[in-house]
């Protein structure tokens, strides 16, 4: 029976079964694989009514762009969103996990989630793994205590700021923020500034590119503007498309018809006493 | 040498109009020596869901067996097949569990979801999902495949045209990769049937 326990869904957390084998392979000269990163430019700023988050949409695998339109602004709670930079699997997994924990907490307390709760959950998880979970996050939201914006580094340290940038394009975006940010921005000014900062990252940083995603969070309301700006359209597509003159040579064809889905309509009959 | 270049593989999945196609090469090698020319890389999980696994052959087979086990348990408990989106989350969770000692595999998942809407997705070896609306690629030939698919893809293709496009993209990309090739294996799935075809390619 103990052999069966091994394969049954585990209680959660990481499993280190294959570490010994992978170590042995590395000693034999085999290079470990490169993971999908989100090169990235992610930004956040606080404006007069709440928080605006922005992100680019390029995901890279080494020097190749593997996803031209990925989503980097992750949902945490109805009033809290989080942008993620670093290893894509880590940012997705950590934000998903904390999002579920926040949901359970909401059920337990019966109250709206607070940004500081998400912050503490994230930083304690990342610190626990001493930076091996490579997720650099910009967390923003509006709760009962007001609008909040935080940055979280892979080792677990955090900063609370009025405007923040992270990722490989953070210097390009920060340059825009430092020159144009001021307190009391209106919604439109804020969106314009965030878009400008992300565009600066897209055009100047090689690890960021494609489109701009924006998320505006105010008290009791949020707006997720997916692909708010598309500064890199595919304008070179030929109208007539590709046509193949020589057909592919096929050696063998096997056709399997799929089962028709049968619908059972119960003819209700009154039950007899 | 990278661990992904030990066995060699090429996988591509593309979306058409209410249908999808998933294709792989057929070579199994040990570095530069070819030891099999009919190696299966695409597995059928249920009627309308296919899984392709590229990368290290042994990890691909182990991962496939684990996933079939989990899916069968799911079928027993829920009395229905898994939706492609759910299956993708399952694969992602299984891979992320091994974050610090990963399986050296890159899966490509393709299936027909609710209302016969095609779903394709790929992941890196630790489970970072990439949901695409047009095509996904994986394997040693992935760089060529990206280029070929990017230029040959058109939205809303009918099954026959989709088959032609996927085959041409696959064969032209594996021709430029030493570690994959020896023909192709293409599945084109529509709501009513699954057409499996074996392609003739360069045997080098």
From TrEMBL, chain A:
Annotated keywords: Cytoplasm, Hydrolase, Nucleus, Protease, Proteasome, Threonine protease
InterPro entries for the chain: Ntn_hydrolases_N, Pept_T1A_subB, Proteasome_bsu_CS, Proteasome_sua/b, Proteasome_suB-type
Localisation per UniProt entry: Cytoplasm; Nucleus
Active site: 40 (nucleophile)
GO MF annotation, one: threonine-type endopeptidase activity
Gene3D superfamilies (UniProt xref): Glutamine Phosphoribosylpyrophosphate, subunit 1, domain 1 (3.60.20.10)
Family named by the database record: Belongs to the peptidase T1B family.
Function, in words: Component of the proteasome, a multicatalytic proteinase complex which is characterized by its ability to cleave peptides with Arg, Phe, Tyr, Leu, and Glu adjacent to the leaving group at neutral or slightly basic pH. The proteasome has an ATP-dependent proteolytic activity.
Protein name listed in UniProt: Proteasome subunit beta
From TrEMBL, chain B:
Presence of keyword Nucleus: yes
Organism: Dillenia turbinata
Primary localization class, coarse: cytoplasm
Family annotation (Pfam families): Proteasome (PF00227)
Name listed for the protein in its UniProt record: Proteasome subunit beta
InterPro entries named among the record's database cross-references: Ntn_hydrolases_N, Proteasome_beta_3, Proteasome_bsu_CS, Proteasome_sua/b, Proteasome_suB-type
A GO cellular-component term linked to this record: cytoplasm
Localization terms from the record: Cytoplasm; Nucleus
Its biological purpose: Non-catalytic component of the proteasome, a multicatalytic proteinase complex which is characterized by its ability to cleave peptides with Arg, Phe, Tyr, Leu, and Glu adjacent to the leaving group at neutral or slightly basic pH. The proteasome has an ATP-dependent proteolytic activity. Component of the proteasome, a multicatalytic proteinase complex which is characterized by its ability to cleave peptides with Arg, Phe, Tyr, Leu, and Glu adjacent to the leaving group at neutral or slightly basic pH. The proteasome has an ATP-dependent proteolytic activity.
Similarity comment text for this entry: Belongs to the peptidase T1B family.
Any one GO BP annotation for this protein: proteasome-mediated ubiquitin-dependent protein catabolic process
Signal peptide per UniProt: none
Subunit structure and binding partners: Component of the proteasome complex.
Cited PANTHER family: METALLOPROTEASE TLDD, PROTEASOME SUBUNIT BETA TYPE-3
UniProt keyword terms in alphabetical order: Cytoplasm, Nucleus, Proteasome
């Amino acid at each position: 029976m103990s052999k069966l326990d091994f394969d049954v869904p585990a209680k959660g957390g990481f499993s280190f079964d294959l570490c010994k084998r992978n170590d042995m392979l590395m000693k034999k000269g085999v290079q470990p694989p490169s993971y999908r990163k989100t090169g990235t430019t992610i930004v956040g700023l606080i404006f007069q009514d709440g928080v605006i988050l922005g992100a680019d949409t390029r995901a890279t695998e080494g020097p190749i762009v593997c996803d031209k339109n990925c989503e980097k602004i992750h949902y945490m709670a109805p009033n809290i969103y989080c942008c993620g930079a670093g290893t894509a699997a880590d940012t997705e997994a950590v934000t998903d996990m904390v999002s579920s924990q926040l949901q359970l907490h909401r059920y337990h307390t019966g109250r709206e989630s607070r940004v500081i709760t998400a912050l503490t959950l994230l930083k304690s998880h990342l610190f626990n793994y001493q930076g091996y979970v490579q997720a650099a996050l910009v967390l923003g939201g509006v709760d009962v205590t007001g609008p909040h914006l935080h940055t979280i580094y892979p080792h677990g340290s955090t900063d609370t700021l009025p405007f923040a940038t992270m990722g490989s394009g953070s210097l390009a975006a920060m340059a825009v923020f430092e020159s144009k940010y001021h307190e009391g921005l209106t919604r439109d000014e804020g969106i314009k500034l965030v878009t400008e900062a992300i565009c600066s990252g897209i055009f100047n940083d090689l690890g960021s590119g494609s489109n701009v995603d924006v998320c505006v969070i105010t008290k009791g309301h949020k707006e997720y503007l997916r692909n708010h700006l598309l500064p890199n359209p595919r304008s070179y597509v030929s109208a007539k498309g590709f046509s193949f003159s020589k057909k592919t040579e096929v050696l063998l064809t096997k056709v399997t018809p799929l089962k028709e889905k049968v619908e059972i309509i119960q003819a209700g009959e009154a039950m007899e006493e | 040498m990278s661990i992904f270049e030990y066995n060699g593989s090429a996988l591509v999945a593309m979306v058409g109009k209410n249908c999808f196609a998933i294709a792989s090469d057929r070579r199994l090698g040990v570095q530069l020596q070819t030891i099999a020319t009919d190696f299966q890389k695409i597995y059928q999980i249920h009627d309308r869901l296919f899984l392709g696994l590229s990368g290290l052959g042994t990890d691909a087979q182990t991962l496939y067996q684990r996933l079939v086990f989990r899916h069968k348990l799911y079928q027993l408990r829920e009395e229905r097949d898994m939706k492609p989106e759910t299956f993708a989350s399952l694969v992602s969770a299984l891979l992320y569990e091994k974050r610090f000692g990963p399986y050296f595999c890159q899966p490509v998942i393709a299936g027909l979801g609710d209302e016969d809407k095609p779903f394709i997705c790929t992941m890196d070896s630790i489970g970072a999902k990439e949901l695409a609306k047009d095509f996904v690629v994986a394997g040693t030939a992935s760089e060529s495949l990206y280029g070929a698919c990017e230029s040959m893809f058109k939205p809303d293709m009918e099954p026959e045209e989709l088959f032609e496009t996927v085959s041409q993209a696959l064969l032209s990309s594996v021709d430029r990769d030493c570690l994959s090739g020896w023909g192709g294996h293409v599945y084109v799935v529509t709501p009513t049937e699954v057409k499996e075809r074996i392609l003739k390619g360069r045997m080098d």
